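HUMAN: Now follow token order:
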Amino acid sequence: MSMSMNELIAEIEMIAPRELEEEWDNSGMQINMGNNEVSRVLVALEITKSLIAEAMMKGVDFIITHHPLLFNKIDQVDNNDIIGNYIIDLVKADISVYSAHTTFDEAFGGNNEYLADLIGLSRVRKINNRQIYGRDQNREYIPGRIGEFQEPITMEDACKLVENALNVKGELRTVGNSNKIIRTVGLCTGAGGDTLVAAIKNGCDLFISSDIKHHEAQIAKESDVCLIDAGHYATEQIFTENFADKLRKNVGTKIQILESEIVSNPFSNMI
């Protein structure tokens, strides 16, 4: 079972179109080993030393990640540098790497829509940016989605839904009264603080994201809008199962699609 690398990349970009990529991002090929044929693909959140070991153990020749391996500019490939070490190990193992970052966040059925589905939102749609800056704003929509619960629930119950959906019980940071009634929800997987104000202006009762800064949390509090910070890893680790499933549906049995079993969350609870 195999398919050409060009065929595989075309299938990836049907799922995560390159035109959705943010200007600051670096989605796409990270390492191209020039292999004509690909037979085994590993899907993962990000490259780590453990992930590379897993890939080698499973005999994969292509890795698809959400987080780009090459995000910041590097001046040299140095084995003493973490990213340089990753690159050298991957090249030695003859493994190519492709990253679907913001291209998949905003894609149809991508990270944001998948999270909305996991917590049971309906009428899911993009977040309108004109609510803030008017019709002359160049960017009509910004990252994230809005949806509604079919029946309003309390903030406490919304937290339970998020905990169960993302398997992060007891790890949420929240703003707002636990008894507040929630119907309209905005969300942005990954670091979504820049989307908060737009979510508020679009009438959200609750905003779900991660990496929320202190002043952003204050904005939510003063606006009487509830907030759930579920953590960067938790809101984006859903990439692996979601992307792998979509790719399997597209390529069928032509190649083997594996899901990484590595937990790459750098944070841990000591208590």
Notes: The mean pLDDT is 95. The CA atoms of residues 109 and 242 lie 8 Å apart. The first helix runs from residue 5 to 15.
